[in-house]
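Continued from yesterday's entry.
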Amino acid sequence: MPQWLKTTLLVVGLLILMAFLVEPVLVARRRRQQAAAQSRPPGSGRWPPSDASVQGADSAAVSGPRPAEPSAEQGSIVLADHDRLVVTCNQRDDTVYVLRPPGEDPKAILRVARLVLPEGRYGELARQLGMPAIGPVE
């Protein structure tokens, strides 16, 4: 058997052995991360992002004018680019987060927001998007 073939077979065998040894380590690590994520209380994760993270490293992804600092009774609306359309409202500080694909139709955003936001916040979002509010969902 030629030397180059022996070397090639040895390298392939070692790669296969490493794959079998690394697989259980990766599975255990993934399970540990899932268990840690499930044991955290709701709302302690990174969503919704804090104002510091929105204005910090991710500031290039945030588009549209950011309103002035919200008063105690009025929250703000944050628009940011994302690969999917997501509309959510943080009830602690009454901040609305709209994550949408670039160029998303404002009507589609309002259809989703109509299902999630209270009437007042929905109207503010519609005004910020420059669209008339869509009627109630039937």
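--- second protein ---
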Amino acid sequence: MSLHDDLLAMLEGVADVSLVARLRDRRLGFPDETRLNVFIPDIHLVTPRRQYRFGTNSPELLTAVVRGLRDFRTVAAPGQVTVYQLGDLLDLWRETPGLDPDADVASAIEDEHPDLMEALYHPALDAQFVLGNHDYDLYRWPNYDVWQRHFRVAPTVLALHGDIFDCVEKLPDPAQNVLVHLLAPAARPYSFELGESAAPSAAGDRFNVQDAQSPPEMLRFFDSARGFAGGLTTLVIGHTHHARLVVHEDGDDLFALVDCGAWIENCVTADDPAPRPSAQLGVLGDDEIRIYQLAPRRKL
């Protein structure tokens, strides 16, 4: 049993799990079978007063998953498993129309989600937090000044939120903040196409991997990310809310964009057009990438 398989067994103990994408390839350049990295993408927590047509999906499931990761990490040994939250955890932009240094907005949001926040901040989990565009201003407060804009996960791997690849982000942050706050009440959840889906045990070393021949919606930000990557083989992002794994291959060279999706909005698959709440995780280790879609366990 590998750490990947042990993690999957833990996830299947708390959720129904399907596979979004998988790639195992020596060219990825992180062959250490004793280390595993788990990525939790956008969560976008707000207080109930700002909960409009859609909000964070399945917070109870997410809490159970994070607690499972904490226990899994403790059993596997702290040095072997690292958990990253990829940004937009606390949605300051939807909560308020602008930065108010006298308003404790982050604490107000956290107070409304005590179980999830306790799980995410638990010392035994030792999660590493990325600043996203919606919660970037957290860096101004002492409680969050250790949060980063990116993490070098391995010599060949960088994890970041992904907003730097978005042309919309060229607008000034205050203008974006106001627009998000004003438009949030009318916004509807989008359903993102995942492509194929499969049981985690049914797919081989390469499943649902996108490339230059894939539909344009699968390639969003890919060229920008590849140009940014330099000598990296892998960029891990959130931000788009669209879980997908996209690669460029050239002989012995390979570049992968791992978009881990979100815990907000919806997703559909090629075999099932009915929207379901997005609830995704990315996992990297032992020259292997996996993206999972989770759902509350069905009652038998």
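The first strand starts at residue 15 and ends at 24. The chain has seven helices and 15 strands. Will compare against the first tomorrow.
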